[in-house]
Specification:
The chain is mainly beta and 868 residues long. It has nine helices and 53 strands. Helix content is 9%, strand content 36%. An eight-stranded mixed beta sheet has the order 17-16-20-12-22-29-27-28, with helices on one face. Helix 1 packs across helix 2. The protein is elongated, with a radius of gyration of 40 Å.
Length: 868
């Protein structure tokens, strides 16, 4: 046995061990790295002490695979996967998952959803991030296994399996007195299936609900936010589900749209509108088992359901459905075209029924072929000839109308037409003749609809024909009109006696009756001692079966919007303190948006600078107003209303709006926006079309951002600081200069990231203002200034602004701010230099002052220059 086969055998012995994040002990539980470590240990190569712990499920940094291979004593392989290969797959753009191959298509790994180590096929939709194999020429000791550099890159498989689809209560648990519980599942009712319930056969395009045939237990995931510096932590719970739904008892071609609680779950383009994965099994005769079901049940207990069309949902996010399995219906595309012969193909005896069904786009058969014939026989003549072969609607095989021989008289008592050989009669009209066709309307998303036949008013309600078929309104109107007319003409009946037996005169044949106008259809025949008696009904004359030129209306519906998932746009930034906010906590927000209304939000993460993605919660569905600047905002003074500058911006979505405001709302803080690194207010917003706006009448350098007045460039982010901003817990983000906020939505192939703009703004004191230089009577030089405070944005006459720092301290610097020649500290907004003191320094040196706050220094204020 080779070393690879030895490792594969050890991995197989781990199947069934519970899943445990960071688990290294098989008696307690294992994660994906734990499976690799345990398999190596069972082959005599201890590795668990060398593996990292405490890593996160997601990360943006890829490992150094070359060094990993060297430390492991393996080499990268580009050939077909073999037993004993160590595989790295990527379930999502920011997640790696490891396992050990036991064959070319199967591997052993720790499945976080199924909560155990399983053997299952390698999911083909997971890109391979690496494959390593023991080198035959290398004898490296396997005890050198080192995965330390993986750090926070390990995570469970894309999915956590989901479940309790049969109705199960989930217990709630509290984590301590300082933790608040968010909304949590209490009692969830799920769609179930019944044993022995028949599965329908679908033809063409139909909409069906299906039947649940497999499911796992519900999986609960929680994320903890906050909890730093004594603030309470909030746990947010998410639920998802794994289940399989059988749709048809015959093969199909594809699945189209899917509706969940009446809303689109899957669009026409194949995109899911919520998180999760869906796999379609069309029912082919060679279809393989589903990998998730194999992993959960085992290869020896998992059927492939060949001949059965079904879908499997893996990790379907239930947050948009009140944490329950929604009511699902599926658009099944079974055939491009079909005939009556296709519908009767499962009959025991051969049947000649190659009858086209023009305009019939789909049909669902839930019973026997006889019932299907009866359903269509209400609209189309379908006489059955059970002669040498079973033929339906024989008239379609006729080259011409068959003439009947002369009628034969009868001599027996009670025979019809004793002297003429035939009789003719016209039946009474039905009390409620069929005049309504109920069907499924294609243009109304397969909703039940009806069409009525024209004709004189009746004393009773017309009979309704129920046809479980997908039709368009024009086709349905044509069918019921023809059926109604055919019923009127077929009231004309003829009984005809013939002396000869002609095998062509079988039910369904069209004949011409001597001396009687029109064409007639043979309904039945009987061989008696007086001759062959034929029962005929009048066929529609030429032109009577033409499609009526009548209007048809499918009705109005409110279809669920099928909007593609657009890419996420993200801008993260700090905002200034409000008077009621904490003075020692940064206020970080994320503006998250997209260019279309099909955006359903994104998951937000924080990267503290080490590449690990820490969850910070969802963004919600509300879009922030985001755009980019098209022009440069000129520099201006922050002391006066900037009436001269204009700024053109292009909003992310042309439907987003900006408004102009009067001076009073402007003074109250309305129309505040982030432009690059400066916070401004604008009074005028003029639309230019196509999402372009021209802004003017600015208040500049708001909230202490006057240092960015001269640093604007075209293409800077523009964010309206209003509704739609998402607060981010500062404890999670940290204070590293390389920290970033990331977002991942349904339309994003990679995480979208943004640095934290205006970093430190919340905790940094504002620069002092109003510098003054005075000369004292004794010749001393006095510099004074006015203090400002974080969170206090309005000047109050006659009083000082509150002190929001722990103490009032200032730092006076002579020379360069970064490398001052001399510094002085003072506890009041003034400093006095003794006579002649400043003359000891070089002339024309700048003198600055900075307020020393609790957490940071303020931007500098130029007090003046040293002069002799």
């Amino acid at each position: 046995m080779t070393r690879g086969e030895d490792l594969a055998t050890a991995a197989l012995s781990l199947i069934g061990i519970p899943f445990r994040l960071h688990g290294r002990n098989p008696e307690i539980g294992l994660d994906c790295l734990g499976v690799v470590a345990a398999a190596l240990e069972r082959t005599g190569r201890p590795a668990a002490p060398l593996l990292p712990n405490g890593y996160t499920l997601r990360s943006t940094i890829d490992p150094d695979f070359d060094s990993l291979a060297r430390s492991l004593g393996v080499a990268a392989s580009t050939t077909v996967t073999a037993a004993g290969d160590i595989l790295a797959a990527r379930p999502s753009p920011c997640q790696l998952h490891f396992g050990i191959a036991v064959s070319a298509t199967q591997w052993v790994h720790a499945h976080s959803g199924l909560r155990k180590v399983v053997l299952c096929p390698v999911p083909p939709e997971w890109p391979c991030a690496g494959r390593w194999r023991f080198s035959l020429s290398q004898g490296a000791d396997m005890a050198t296994l080192v995965f330390g550099s993986l750090g926070s890159l390990m995570g469970g498989p894309v999915g956590g399996t989901i479940g309790s689809l049969m109705g199960q209560q989930v217990d709630t648990a509290l984590f301590g007195s300082t933790r608040r519980q968010g909304p949590r599942l209490k009692d969830t009712a799920f769609t179930t299936s019944s044993y022995g319930q028949p599965l329908p056969r679908h033809f063409g395009r139909v909409r069906t609900a299906g039947s649940v045939i497999w499911a796992t237990d519900l999986v609960e995931r929680s994320e903890v936010q906050g909890g730093g510096k004594g603030s309470p932590a909030v746990s947010t719970f998410r639920y998802s589900a794994n289940f399989a739904i059988a749709l048809a008892s015959r093969p199909i071609q594809a699945i189209g749209r899917i509706w969940a609680d009446g809303q689109l779950l899957r669009g026409a383009g194949g995109d899911l509108k919520c998180g999760g994965t869906m796999r379609v099994h069309t029912g082919a005769g060679n279809q393989p088992p589903d990998p998730l079901i194999v992993a959960a049940e085992g290869a020896d207990r998992c059927p492939a359901y060949r001949g059965l069309a079904y879908v499997v949902f893996e990790e379907l996010d239930l947050s948009g459905f009140y944490n329950r399995i929604p009511a699902l219906t599926f658009e099944v595309i079974a055939d491009a075209d079909f005939t009556l012969q296709d519908m009767l193909g499962g009959a025991e005896s051969p049947i000649d029924a190659a009858i086209p069904l023009p305009g019939v786009l789909g049909y669902t058969s839930e019973s026997s072929p006889a019932d299907d014939l009866q359903a269509f026989g209400q609209l189309i003549p379908l006489e059955i000839d059970a002669g040498s072969a079973l033929v339906i609607a024989r008239q379609r095989t006729q080259a011409s109308v068959l003439p009947l021989p002369e009628a034969a008289i009868a001599t027996g008592d009670g025979d019809f037409g004793a002297t003429s050989g035939f009789t003719r009669r016209r039946g009474l009209p039905a009390a409620n003749r069929p005049g309504i066709l109920r069907y499924y309307e294609l243009e109304r998303d397969y909703q039940a609809s009806l069409q009525r036949a024209s004709g004189p008013a009746s004393s009773s309600e017309p009979a309704a024909i129920e046809l479980p078929a997908t039709l368009e309104a024009a086709t349905a109107r044509t069918l019921i009109e023809k059926a109604s007319r055919r019923i009127d003409w077929t009231r004309d009946r003829v009984a005809w006696r013939s002396c000869g037996l002609d095998p062509d005169l079988s039910p369904g044949a069209l004949v011409a009756v001597p001396g009687v106008a029109g064409h007639w259809r043979v309904r039945e025949w009987e061989w008696r001692d007086s001759g062959v008696e034929l029962s005929l009904e009048r066929s529609l004359p030429a032109g009577a079966d033409a499609r009526p030129n009548l209007a048809s209306d499918p009705g109005r519906s409110n279809p669920a919007p099928d909007l593609p998932a657009p890419a996420t746009r993200l801008v993260a930034f700090e905002v200034p303190l409000e008077p009621t906010a904490k003075f020692d906590a940064p206020r970080i927000f994320a503006a998250v948006s997209a260019a279309g209304e099909g955006w359903s939000g994104a998951a937000l993460y924080a990267d503290t600078g080490d590449g690990a993605m820490l969850p910070v919660g969802p963004s919600g569905r509300r879009r922030a107003v985001i755009g980019d600047t098209l022009t440069i905002l000129p520099a201006a003074t922050p002391l006066l209303l900037d009436r001269a500058s204009e700024l053109d911006v292009l909003l992310l979505d042309p439907t987003m709006q900006l408004v102009s405001v009067d001076p009073l709302p402007l003074a109250q803080g309305h129309n505040r926006a982030l432009v690059g690194e400066e916070i401004v207010q604008f009074a005028s917003a003029r639309p230019l079309g196509g999402g372009r706006w021209r802004l003017s009448n600015f208040v500049r350098g708001c909230a202490g951002t006057e240092s960015a007045l001269h640093a604007h460039q075209p293409g800077e982010p523009f964010v309206l600081l209003g509704p739609g901003l998402v607060p981010i817990a500062s404890e999670t983000v940290g204070t590293d200069p390389e920290r970033r906020i990331l977002a991942l939505g349904r339309g994003d192939h990679e995480p979208v990231s943004s640095p934290v703009h205006l970093s430190g703004l919340s905790l940094r004191p504002l620069a002092p203002v109003h510098p003054r230089r005075m000369q004292a009577d004794d010749g001393a030089t006095v510099f004074t200034w006015t203090r400002r405070a974080r969170g206090e944005w309005f000047w109050r006459d006659g009083v000082d602004v509150p002190l929001t720092e722990q103490a009032e301290r200032y730092l006076v610097l002579l020379g360069s701010v970064e490398a001052p020649l001399a510094t002085w500290a003072t506890a009041e907004p003034r400093i006095t230099f003794a006579p002649g003191m400043l003359t000891t320094f070089p002339s024309d040196m700048p003198l600055h002052v900075r307020q020393s706050g609790t957490h940071a220094l303020s931007p500098p204020l130029l007090l003046g220059r040293v002069t002799p």
